[in-house]
Model the fold of this input.
Amino acid sequence: MNLLVLGPQGAGKGTQAKRIAADYALPHVSTGDMFRAAIAAGTPLGKRVEPILAAGELVPDDLTVALIEERLAETDALDGFVLDGFPRNLAQAEALDAMFRKIHRSLDAVLFFDLPDDIATERMLKRAEQESRPDDTPDVIARRLAIYHEQTEPIVEHYRATGKLVPLHAERTVDEVYTEVQDALDALSGSAAA
Ligand code: ADP
Done:
């Protein structure tokens, strides 16, 4: 299964993506995690993107698209993946469409974790107390949510038009949301088998 998770920061999509990846034996491909790993390892990419992540801005599309193209070509991703954090704007969504056309692949579902901003902010501030992500300060959280609405939200319509969008109720508990995810994925594999 080729899956995409989409939604604002704080929607819990990373948590759900990890759970799906574990249960369905798919690699969890998270651009945010990949950038943070590059920063931790001090690679040239890491050095370049560190101030961008700290400010809550988007890494340039050429770097991000190249990273994903390489990652999805790795053996463990050939039978499927859970893509998390990419695409984040229309240009990236179009680059992904083009990439898939070239290799004759397509997305099976786009899981959309929708959440009002006030709940998203509240959850991120709570997370900030538990983890210590440098981009979880109130200013940077506000900037990341603004970019989400400006640049990422328009791709919801892009995927709705493909008929692959699966809207979920992300304000519910982790277990409740995961039950919705499983129902959606079971329906998908049921229809694929039929
Ligand atoms: P969140 O969804 O909580 O913002 P992520 O881990 O998905 O966290 O991303 C962290 C940061 O990594 C983003 O704020 C951005 O700077 C960078 N990033 C991740 N994915 C992309 C992408 N597809 N395009 C550009 N920048 C990205």
Summary: The mean pLDDT is 93. The chain has one domain: 2-175. DSSP finds nine helices and five strands in the chain. The CA atoms of residues 39 and 48 lie 9 Å apart.
